[in-house]
Amino acid sequence: MNLLKKSFFITTVFLIPLLTATVLFAQSPTFLIPPAEFKAFDTPNDAGETVSLTWSASPSDVSDVFYVIYVDIDKNGTFEKEATRIKSNTSYRTAVPEIYGYKKGNSDYHYVQINPRKVFNGETFSKKQVYYFKLALVSGDNKIVLDTVTSASARGNLIHTKKINNFVIMIIVSAIILYFIVRARRNPNMFLRKIGGLDAVDEALGRATEMGKPVLFVHGLTTMGSISTIAAISILGRIARKIADYDANLKVVNNDPIVMSVSQEVVKESYLEAGRPDAYNPDNVFLVASEQFPYVAAVGGIMTREKPAANFFIGYFYAEALILAETGATTGAIQIAGTDAYTQLPFFITTCDYTLIGEELYAASAYLSREPMLMGTLRAQDVGKGLLIVILVLGTILASFGLTYITHLFEAF
Asked: Whole-angstrom Cα distance, residue 135 to residue 54?
């Protein structure tokens, strides 16, 4: 019992005051330690509006201590204008890897950007105006101002050096595209990777011809301003050309009058190219309804009554996709769909025989037309994807061993 009393007495009389004094000593603003370095420079790769400042972190960097930067246009000025104020444990070089890179030591230095013209409330200065800066460490009523005066002027840069990687990538990709366009002009039968849905087009049209049943082409619900509709029109032209060669019957349903007019001209031109303008029937390219579900009901009725041998759903679709595809599937038709509406792709994949997924819709016109420029561009895209896959694999391997440089090559600062 006496031992407990003695321990309590020692703790109360000696240890608690000692700990309290230690804490107060550590938190006392009297012992602020100023940073060792303070530099200013023109911010690289900008339009000449800002100046960058950096300084080494201080042992006094805690949340209730602030760094204050003062600016003046005279080296011997009063430095009364406060440019910025930050907490001493914030704003490090790590926030700007485009300037300092990805170095671990960046966390030991503070960094800020200042727009001097805004600090001086838009006062007019020459473009070569030099600004002078002082750094202060502030905690409560205590302030330490560094004797160091650093200076810099804001100048514009003609070239953004950190975007050179983007420029190089653009040049490489452009060269690949031009190479394959030239190659496609010399060899119209240049190999393109196979897409099952396009290989089945001839099969579907041949079946319709043998059965003496029509082919139904269904546009999506978007207007001519949609890239998916433009791609669908291009595919329609190639299908119509083959229909004219096979002497089959093609019906094209639309929900937009402008799309209908364009479709009529495209189908007519295809029949002319096939040398059978007399076989073209403008009544086979028609408008069924302008609203979504009346359009679906009308197209479903055509499928049920006429039972086409092949259905093409090409374009951008919404909630009507599953209704159209299910109705067509009940008639026993071969169904080929193509859309870039990713929310509807599962329904088409489930109910159709072949589906062009996403960008395959845009590639279809190149496959069917064999136009050199389209073929060359498509082949270049495939090569570019292959290169990206190789780079991803290589980057993953290097990053696994701690070599992360390649992971930053494709960053657009």
From this structure: 10
